[in-house]
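Quick illustration, no need to memorize.
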Amino acid sequence: MLRAWIVWSSFALMLGCSSTTDEASDVTADALGDTTSDATQDGSPDARPDARPDGNTSTLALDATLDAEAARETQANGDATPLEVIIPTALGGDRPAKLYVPAAYDPSRPWPLIMLLHGYGVSGLVQTAYLGLIQRVETLGFVLLAPDGSVNSEGLRYWNAFPSCCDFEGSDVDDVAYLRGLISEARETLTIDPERVLLLGHSNGGFMAYRMACDAAEAITAVATIAGSMTIDAPCTPSRPISVLAVPGT
C-alpha cells in the first residue's frame, strides 16, 4: 500500500511540472579563445588583425595563450583578482548530480548548500521544477545539488533509505556513501559553509534525508522533509544533533 501511494504521488508531481531551464550561472569567455580582447596593457589597440604593426596575424592566438597563462600565474601568486571562476554544471563523476550556482557566487565567502532528494519514481530535475528551487538559487542565494537515485527494473528512480522505502528489489546500493561523497566534492569545488548544509527530501527523498541524519550527521546541518518518514525501529545514533523540519501531508 505504501509503495502504491509513493508511486502515485511521485507521478502526480511529474504531471504538474512545467519545463524549467537549468542553466545555473554564466561564465566569462575563455581567454584562450578570445582574440578580440585588449591584448596589451600599454594602451595599444584591440588585438584585431589590422592592429599588429608587422601585419602578422598568425601569432594572435599564441599571444592570447601567453597572456592567459601569465594571468593565471599572477592569480596563483595572489597578485590579482581572478579573471574568471570556472564552475562545473554537475558533480559525482559516473553518477552525476546537477549543480546550480547563483550568478552572484563569490568564492571569497562561504555559501549555504541545499541537496534536494527527489521522490520515488521521479528525478532531481523534476523535483527542482516542482518546488521552484532553480529560481530560488538566485533570489535566496544558495548552491543547489540535485542528484538522482538509482533506477529499478521498472525504470523508477529510488533511494535506499530504510527497509520500508524504497529499495524494493534489494539492490543494497549505498546511497549514504554516495551522498556523503557529493557533499565532500561540493566543499572541495566551491566555498561551502559547513554549518549550512541542508538536505531537502520529498517522500522517498524524505526517508533518505532522515537516513543521512542518522548515519552522516557530521556532513550535514539540518534536514527538511515533505511527506517523508522513517522506519520506527530503525537504528539511529547520529554523531551530533541535527535540526529537523518535518512537513507531513501532500
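The radius of gyration is 23 Å.
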